[in-house]
Sequence to fold (613 residues):
Amino acid sequence: MSDSLPLQDQYLAVIDEIIETTLKGKISSVEQVYQMLLKGITSGTGEVFELVLSDRLNALQSQVDTETDELKKAKATRSLRAVKTIQTQWQRWQEQNKITEAIALSIREITTANPDERLTAFLRATDPNLKYPLNLSQLQQLAKSLRQFATANEDFQQIADGINSGIATWQKLQPNLLNWMYEKKNSLGFGGVPGEQGPWASWAKVVNSEFSQAFFHTLATEQSAIEFVQKQQVISLSNWVELAIVLQFLQRGLINWFDQQAYDITAGPKLSISTFLTFAVIWSQLASGFENQAVYSNGASQIMLQILRTFAQRPYFPLYGGIFASFSGSYLRDALDYLDAPLRSVEKTQEKARILTLLGYSQRNLGKYERSLNFHQQAVEIARTAGDKTCEIANLNHLSRTYVQQENYGEAINYSQRALIFSRQTGDKTGEANALVNLGYSEVMQAKQAQNSRTEVYELAINYLEQGLKLAEKLGDLQSQALCFSSLGIAYLITTQYATAIKYLENAFKTAQISGDLYLQGRNLAYLAEANYHISNYEKAIYTGSLGMYLLEQIAADEWRQPAGLLTIIKGQIGGDKFQLFLQQHRPKIIAVIGVDGYDYLPSLLMKYQEDI
Fold:
């Protein structure tokens, strides 16, 4: 075979040689075919070989299907059989050489890319969503290969140095990955006392890299990644790549550990969800911080989207969830807003529909209803095109909930009915449970708005809610159960059945605590305060109202004003001294949920509400 021939012709000659040798009876085993392939294929050119092989296979298949001459047809059939043997051994070759091939392709892409696209090419090579993602030793091999091109351009040396620095930092962190969990004892997640506890402070203590250490210190003191970028005078390509390697392996290490926690079926997924969100937001903040350095900004957005694509494929992706308890820290309060802008440039994929779902209900929780509706409408269209029926139903349900928040109960009922019909057609039981709850709740609120006092109207609506609860309990779906309990509690509150309302709302709060949904926790506490107020249990109204007010304000949900207004009324009715006495009596219980800082912040929140009136 002549090296002067084009590569396609060289590979066609290899295939034809194997076919002819087979037809002459000189090949007695598939191993001989495999050995001939080994000699004939050059690493890093597998795509070319596969294209040539596919063309040859199709041509022979067409000949077999159309040939009328028996002798020619018999020869074509034997040739087709030989090509299928080549195809089988080619698949074997791919499996055994997949990483070598991947690295060779990556090196070629990185080294031939335009200067402003080299980082993008590197990040494509290290994408965790690849069929064969690179491990540490393979990354080191990639760095070693890039060094060979260092004389041609300094960028290749910088990327190689960043890979090795990142690996060295990760190897220091890996044995200490979970120390912070034991330091915090009863608290998991990314919150904590700024600068003292939590993962970032713990990791900052063990790394040698000044750059990574400075980044961890920034997050430990509840400053954003944007502020970190702004403080740095110069961030080299090597620094950037180091941070990419460190954060990616930290994230994967945490998620792998959380996913394996069999001791608590709710804790593992909840913490994995929190981790995906936290790291995605950090990268989106870095993208914003590097807005004047397009290469770095685009690279950060690229990693953020890689994380979200991985997350969207997980079975526990929260199609109906809220903001999770371990996704905390004031620097992340409005963090999901950061995910919007980089997502606009992404193609319409199943993953995008799911991410838009998360953004949509997060925006609803923040009181941004028009944005919420926009995200969910987009998600419905994309999910329908992608054939993701579960996601489409979830967004119909979310549209119903958002219209309830806007007091557009006709549209809320319309979307919940569509979700109910579609979920029953497709057998989506979680979607059906949520649709029943949305339909019942929407009808309760519509009857209340119309001042309809007929008992049967409320009974029919509550029947939908109870059906939804039974289905959610049967499924063991805690998130849906929390919503069912909450909706039933509010329905009974509206119909002035306060004792029954309190029972359901207390169950709703407990279930939301287990599922880790901060929004539902705060919402249920706010309504518990209202129910207790109606039966003149001011002490309990103050306790639940204070907690609800704080939790909702911490996630920037505008509904914190509801319990704040009620607490202001109670304080006016019973007097400031008695109000303070009741609050003081519940101090230990309040601190157990929101900490000393949270308790001390309550008077400031009430003052803030009064100033805004």
Q: What stands out?
A: Confidence is low (pLDDT under 50) at residues 325-333. The chain has 28 helices and no strands.
